[in-house]
Design goal:
Elements: H1 3-9, H2 23-48, H3 53-62, H4 80-93, H5 95-114, H6 117-128, E1 134-137, E2 153-157, E3 160-170, E4 178-184, E5 194-200, E6 206-208, E7 223-233, E8 237-238, H7 244-278, H8 283-289, H9 300-310, H10 318-330
Parallel strand pairs: 1-4
Antiparallel strand pairs: 2-3, 3-7, 4-5, 5-8, 6-7
Helix pairs in contact: 2-3, 2-4, 4-5, 4-7, 5-6, 5-7, 7-8, 7-9, 8-9
Length: about 325
């Protein structure tokens, strides 16, 4: 990237930690980068199922990979509203890039909140600079979105955990450098027997399945993870044994779900803008309004429809989310 272009997009740094900017300046920067760097590549990346590595590096150069990381760790230390606003702008340009970004941000947040000094120093700078990516692995073939039903097991042997099992539908699988993995360390204790482990891509015994041929969000390298006596250091435990659900709750639920919602908003806004240009509404409605054009890959709205449909499966299915919403309403 030319230096003048990099300087144009960089969130200002003064000395050490990134300087906090006004929220509107951050939104404007996200909007500009998304329009200039991400959107022009979106259609081709979707057709080629190309992982958005360059896009993630651009976001790292601008400082967005450290948006929600504490200032003391070199991040911006910003909250969910700003995070959602930035993700919305990214998703308007490329929903696949937005999903990869959210997944990596979730792992970075888990490292910040629950890891030891060694892991924080090793991974946070690289993720925030866009040199490394994180991915989280919770879902399994036989448990779907129900995290409490996972069966992947980790046994402690000396100074290591030995992991056996599999995860599926994992964003950035095979591309990310480090994985937040939910496992069972004590099958007798139910949810209290689950733990969160950080597994590096080159860990012995970790392998990846073929990329899923998905309808939408095609550039996210969605694959299975297979653990066959995968050995990692005990120091890669996040939090304490039995605190896996708490770690997932503070990161995947506490930040990832906000990111998923923001991606949906970004897709909807993009579809709305396109529909207004042709004279009407969003996604499904836009396809009807645009007639045959809305059904052809030459038109952006067709990609938006596929990406929006894919978001009903990531994180949690629509059915599980409706149950969560109902429970929340009943406790008000």
């Amino acid at each position: 990237m030319p230096e003048e272009e990099k300087d144009l997009h960089k969130i200002e740094r003064r000395g050490g930690p990134m300087e906090k900017l006004h929220i509107e300046e951050i939104k404007d920067t996200a909007r500009r980068i998304s329009a200039e760097r991400l959107k022009p590549r979106a259609a081709e990346a979707d057709r080629d199922r190309a992982f958005p590595r360059e896009n993630m590096e651009a976001l790292g150069d601008a400082g967005f990979q450290g948006l929600i990381i504490a200032e003391g760790e070199g991040g911006l230390g910003l909250g969910r509203n700003v995070f959602a606003s930035v993700v919305t702008e990214i998703a308007k340009a490329c929903a696949s890039t937005a999903l990869v970004h959210v997944s990596s941000a979730v792992v970075a947040k888990a490292v910040e909140l629950a890891s030891g000094d060694g892991l924080r120093k090793k991974w946070l700078p690289k993720i925030m600079e866009g040199r490394s990516l994180g991915a989280f692995a919770v879902h399994e073939p036989d448990s779907g979105s129900n995290a409490s039903a996972i069966t992947t097991r980790a046994k402690k042997e000396g100074g290591s955990y030995i992991i056996n099992g599999s995860k599926f539908f994992i964003t950035s699988a095979g591309e990310a450098d480090v994985y937040l993995v939910l496992v069972r360390t004590d099958p007798e204790k139910g949810a209290q027997g689950m733990s969160a482990l950080l597994v590096e891509k080159d860990a012995p015994g970790l392998s990846f399945g073929r990329p899923e041929d998905k309808m939408g969000l095609t550039s996210t390298s969605s694959r299975e993870l297979h653990f066959d006596d995968c050995r990692i250091p005990v120091g890669n435990l996040l939090g304490k044994e039995g605190e896996g659900m708490q770690v997932i709750g503070k990161t995947v639920v506490g930040w990832g779900f906000f990111g998923a919602a923001a991606i949906s908003v970004g897709i909807a806004r993009s579809a709305t803008e396109l529909a207004i240009e042709h004279a009407v509404e969003i996604t499904n409605s836009a396809i009807q309004v645009l007639g045959g054009h809305g059904y052809c890959r030459d038109y952006t709205v067709e990609r938006l429809f596929r990406d929006a449909r894919g978001l009903t499966l990531h994180f949690k299915t629509s059915e599980w989310l409706r149950q969560d919403i109902a429970k929340a309403v009943l406790t008000l």
